[in-house]
């Protein structure tokens, strides 16, 4: 009895480790949703219940099927992304898992008469050895990936279609190659040394090939990211240059106004003395207009944000979009210039572009900044042509330039999360809202 319980616990441990390996492989290609740790804990609890039921009632033969269906359901609710993205991630992870298994099994089998893995006497022991060896191999691959690959470049959500297809074909090619070689070597082809040794070399080469191609994909994605970052940086520099040129012009206007103000006042006094009130009013109105022109349209308390807001305000007005701003940013610089520029530039670009597509004459973009205790709330709201479907805090882009749009949203999210902030989007009654919460004491 105790032996059976020990074997059952060992089997459970092996299965749980395999599940965590599976979760890890999928997480290389997909982002977890919020509160994913709680969902994983719930999944393991349900899995434990199913396992106990299967052990108590062994005549029930649907345990593996139930776990398989439930596991796929968990993938759907645990990870962010479209259904197609999840399908790709699931397929790629399964193929990679198979490649690792076959490599380790061949190593374990070498040196024994027959195949140790499929020996009924040693099945549990061999599975444990394979699982523990896989853990070590996964740990080694993790260390290698941390040195060679960026943490987000292999995420299908932000990859182009061509990179995603290449990534999907990579393990499929390895899977097919290994199956063909395994069957061919064992059935038809004679090699001058051990078959298992030949297969070990083949499987190892396949693993190395997969890693090399993933690193290459990482470099391709990084190059595309750096190019987009360079484009955004150039755009931001141009905005700031135009803003400073505008400031220079307004300073010159203020100097001229100050220089001429004494003469203007003398003229007004003379006009009033001669009862030429209408002419005096016209002159005052003209002076007021000059003073308004010399003032900045929008002032937030931050020179970089001022440059962005004033530039985007001009762009919005050119397209007949009402542009409103309310609020003041904190004086203390708790967020880096590049991050605050990334947040406002990308958010306002998306807002103006969405408002442009709205046929309604009352198109608008509203930016509100509020300080609540130690928190800074940034609300950017804009009109849209129709309500946008939002799932898992992600929208499906309708832009032709899909890569740049997705990259912009990803950049906003990254900049916000860097400071431990919250990023939320919603859409209701043809009004899209981006809400950002940051800690001022960050």
Automatic annotation (TrEMBL):
The keyword tRNA processing does not apply. Residues 336-438 form the Sensor histidine kinase NatK-like C-terminal domain. Keywords: Membrane, Transmembrane, Transmembrane helix. This is GHKL domain-containing protein. It comes from the Bacteria. The chain crosses the membrane at residues 12-32, 39-54, 60-79, 88-108, 128-145, 165-185, 197-217. GO terms for molecular function: identical protein binding. SUPFAM superfamilies: ATPase domain of HSP90 chaperone/DNA topoisomerase II/histidine kinase (SSF55874). It holds the Pfam family HATPase_c_5.
């Amino acid at each position: 009895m105790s032996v059976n319980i020990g074997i059952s616990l060992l089997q459970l441990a092996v299965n749980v480790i395999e599940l965590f390996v599976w979760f890890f492989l999928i997480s290389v290609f997909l982002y977890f949703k919020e509160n994913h740790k709680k969902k994983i804990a719930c999944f393991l609890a349900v899995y434990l219940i199913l396992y106990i039921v299967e052990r108590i009632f062994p005549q029930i033969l649907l345990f593996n099927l139930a776990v398989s269906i439930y596991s796929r359901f968990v993938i759907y609710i645990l990870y962010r992304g479209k259904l197609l993205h999840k399908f790709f991630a699931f397929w790629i992870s399964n193929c990679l898992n198979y490649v690792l298994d076959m490599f380790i099994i061949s190593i374990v089998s070498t040196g024994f008469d027959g195949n140790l893995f499929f020996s009924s006497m040693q099945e549990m022991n061999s599975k444990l050895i394979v699982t523990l060896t896989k853990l070590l191999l996964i740990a080694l691959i993790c260390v290698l990936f941390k040195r060679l690959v960026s943490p987000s470049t292999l995420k299908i959500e932000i990859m182009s279609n061509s990179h995603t297809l290449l990534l999907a074909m990579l393990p499929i090619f390895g899977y097919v190659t290994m199956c063909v070689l395994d069957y061919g070597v064992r059935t038809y082809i004679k090699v001058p040394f051990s078959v298992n040794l030949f297969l070990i070399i083949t499987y190892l080469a396949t693993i190395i090939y997969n890693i090399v191609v993933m690193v290459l994909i990482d470099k391709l994605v990084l190059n595309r990211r750096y190019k987009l970052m360079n484009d955004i940086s150039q755009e931001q520099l141009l905005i700031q240059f135009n803003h400073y040129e505008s400031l220079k012009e307004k300073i010159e206007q203020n100097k001229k106004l100050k220089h001429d103000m004494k003469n203007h006042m003398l003229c007004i006094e003379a006009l009033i003395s001669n009862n030429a009130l209408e002419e005096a009013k016209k002159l005052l109105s003209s002076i007021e207009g000059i003073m308004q022109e010399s003032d900045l349209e929008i002032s937030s308390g931050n020179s970089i944000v001022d440059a962005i807001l004033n530039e985007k305000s001009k762009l919005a007005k050119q397209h007949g979009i009402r542009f409103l701003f309310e609020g003041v940013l904190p004086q203390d610089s708790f967020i880096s210039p590049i991050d605050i520029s990334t947040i406002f530039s990308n958010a306002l670009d998306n807002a103006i572009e969405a408002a442009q597509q709205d046929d309604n004459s009352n198109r608008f973009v509203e930016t509100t900044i509020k300080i609540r205790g130690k928190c800074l709330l940034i609300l950017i709201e804009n009109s849209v042509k129709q309500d946008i479907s939002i799932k898992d805090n992600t929208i499906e882009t309708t832009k032709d330039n899909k890569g740049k749009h997705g990259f912009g949203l990803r950049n906003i999210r990254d900049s916000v999360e860097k400071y431990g902030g919250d990023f939320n989007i919603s859409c209701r009654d043809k009004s899209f809202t981006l809400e950002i919460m940051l800690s001022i004491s960050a």
